[in-house]
């Protein structure tokens, strides 16, 4: 997780009534009520971690997708478009 999501950390891993609860967070030092952690739960610890990881990746993908399409720059820095209209 550290390689794929370097800004996110495991905030909490707990086992309660047959389920693993996993919370990932960007701000571990904040109190629980101020933090916007992503939580997942599953009967298997690995699947609880994986589920939280996938949810964070989906969230990061939504945030990084701009609402306006971007235009790629010209491949050559010396390239300059020229208008060749003949008005004569």
In what range is the share of β-strand residues? Answer: 15-25%
Oligomer: single chain
Q: Return the structural class.
A: alpha+beta
Task: Compute the number of strand runs.
Answer: 3
Question: Could you state the order of secondary-structure elements as H and E?
Answer: EEEH
Number of helices: 1
**What strand order characterises the main sheet?**
1-2-3
Given as residue ranges, the uncertain stretches (5+ residues, pLDDT < 50) are: none
Helical coverage, percent range? 10-25%
Most strands sheet: 3 strands, antiparallel
> Roughly how many Å apart are the termini?
65 Å
Radius of gyration: 23 Å
Query: What is the average per-residue confidence, as pLDDT, rounded to a whole number?
Result: 80
Global shape: elongated
Question: How are the SSEs ordered, and which strands pair?
Answer:
Blueprint: E1 9-16, E2 19-25, E3 38-42, H1 45-64
